[in-house]
């Protein structure tokens, strides 16, 4: 979509604004999804939402102005937030504590593989024609078949989640600030990376491969970093990941200036392995601190903080590219990541915490980042003894952000 918008003559600033509109729509969808599912049920909700997204994708073939893209991307954000709430909520509600972790792990692997492979599909068509959009619309339509034909009983309707930004900031400021900055940084990088790649002289296929590298790096590093975070104060890992992402951003700047395309690709993989994993550690850190009964609201609050960052981050990233050229995107990313590392270090100096006593949960916000707020709310109906384990497992459905 960024490449199509660029082909239509939209500026980098306009593309950034469109990406921000997606984030705004997605955060809005997080709040309206539970009520919609309660009203029509999981199956009807998924069917109607998938059909709407298929129509929106077809509408993009006729989008020639910034306003048209703003409307379509905003609507898509709302619809995809609801779709992922349906999917995540169904899985979390139907899985039992004995195999929930394995099911969610398989779910996340499938999602990660899809996120890695999908950008490479650009080689199957011309971005200036409508074929790729029609293919996406067809695939969305096909996704209706298995859920519409299922004989599985629907889970109970989800409940709402209370957002408590001030209360959570009082007890876990590193998690709140970390989630927000992750949205600020990862949102524009993922949304504008194809434009960045083309602007520094890469082909469209090579630019799309940068997104593949980001997701591949995240997939490879997620579990090793989780293992490491279980053995110390998680804030050390957050600071290290943010600082590492800042340094890799500088490496990308140097490599792009020298035209070292292979180095750029590997640098993007390293960047994804660092920056795209920070949110997981932030959520695990917050869950270490809050009472088990507040985990549902904690996950929802962190997702909200991330969504706010994703909404405004593309505006800053696009403005940096307009003022400083293509490299401005990673100058912005380097500064924001360094700022997060500095904040976390100051918090570590001010407040000492013992190593984590709970396990790490493989969490990544959205893909089109994903809320699973409704799914998390389901966990409140479990017994007090199971609530901490089940709710943390349910939180694992929050996926990698793909606002592009």
Count the helices. How many?
17
Low-confidence stretches: 367-404
CATH superfamily, by name, is: MFS general substrate transporter like domains
- What is the CA-based Rg, rounded? 20 Å
Measured distance between first and last alpha carbons? 7 Å
Which CATH C-level class is it? Mainly Alpha
CATH architecture: Up-down Bundle
Task: Provide the helix percentage.
Answer: over 70%
> Which class do the helix and strand fractions yield?
mainly alpha
Strand count: 0
Bin the strand percentage: under 5%
The CATH topology is given as Growth Hormone, Chain: A
How many independent structural domains?
1
Q: Strand-and-helix sequence, N→C? A: HHHHHHHHHHHHHHHHH
- Average pLDDT confidence is 81
What is the approximate shape? globular
Q: How many strands, which pairing sense, and closed or not: the largest β-sheet?
A: none
Provide a quick synopsis of the model.
The chain has about 400 residues and is mainly α.
Describe it for me?
The chain is an all-alpha fold. The protein has a single domain, classed as Growth Hormone, Chain: A (Up-down Bundle), CATH 1.20.1250.20. 74% of the residues lie in helices and 0% in strands. The protein contains 17 helices and no strands. Helix 2 packs across helix 9, helix 5 packs antiparallel against helix 10 and helix 9 packs antiparallel against helix 13. The C terminus is likely disordered.
């Amino acid at each position: 979509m960024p490449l199509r918008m660029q082909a239509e003559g939209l500026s980098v600033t306009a593309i950034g604004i469109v990406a921000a509109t997606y984030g705004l729509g997605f955060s809005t969808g997080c709040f309206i999804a539970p009520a919609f599912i309660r009203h029509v049920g999981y199956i009807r909700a998924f069917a109607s939402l998938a059909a709407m997204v298929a129509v929106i994708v077809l509408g993009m073939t006729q989008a020639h102005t910034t306003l048209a893209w703003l409307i379509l991307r905003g609507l898509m954000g709302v619809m995809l937030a609801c779709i992922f709430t349906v999917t995540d909520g169904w899985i979390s509600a139907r899985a039992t504590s004995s195999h929930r972790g394995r099911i969610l792990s398989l779910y996340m692997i499938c999602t990660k593989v899809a996120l890695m492979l999908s950008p490479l599909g650009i080689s199957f068509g011309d971005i200036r024609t409508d074929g790729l959009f029609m293919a996406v619309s067809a695939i969305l339509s096909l996704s209706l078949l298995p859920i519409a034909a299922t004989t599985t009983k629907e889970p109970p309707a989800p409940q709402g989640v209370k957002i408590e930004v001030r209360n959570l900031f009082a007890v876990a400021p590193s998690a709140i600030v970390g989630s927000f900055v992750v949205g600020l940084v990862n949102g524009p990088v993922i949304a504008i990376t194809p434009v960045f790649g083309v602007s520094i002289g890469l082909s469209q296929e090579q630019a799309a491969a940068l997104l593949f590298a980001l997701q591949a790096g995240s997939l490879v590093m997620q579990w090793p970093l989780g293992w490491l975070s279980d053995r110390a104060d998680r804030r050390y890992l957050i600071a290290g990941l943010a600082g590492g992402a800042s340094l890799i951003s500088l490496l990308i700047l140097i490599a792009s200036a020298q035209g070292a395309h292979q180095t750029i690709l590997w640098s993007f993989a390293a960047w994804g392995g660092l920056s795209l994993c920070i949110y997981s550690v932030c959520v695990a850190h917050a869950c270490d601190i809050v009472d088990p009964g507040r985990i549902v609201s904690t996950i929802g609050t962190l997702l909200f903080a991330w969504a706010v960052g994703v909404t405004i981050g593309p505006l800053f990233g696009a403005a940096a590219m307009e003022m400083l050229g293509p490299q401005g995107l990673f100058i912005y990313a380097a500064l924001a990541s360094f700022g997060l590392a500095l904040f976390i270090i100051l918090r570590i100096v001010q407040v000492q915490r013992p190593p984590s006593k709970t396990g790490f949960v493989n969490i990544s916000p959205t893909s089109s980042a994903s809320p699973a707020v409704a799914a998390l709310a389901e966990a409140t109906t479990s017994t007090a003894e199971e609530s901490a384990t089940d709710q943390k497992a349910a939180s694992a459905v929050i996926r990698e952000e793909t606002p592009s």
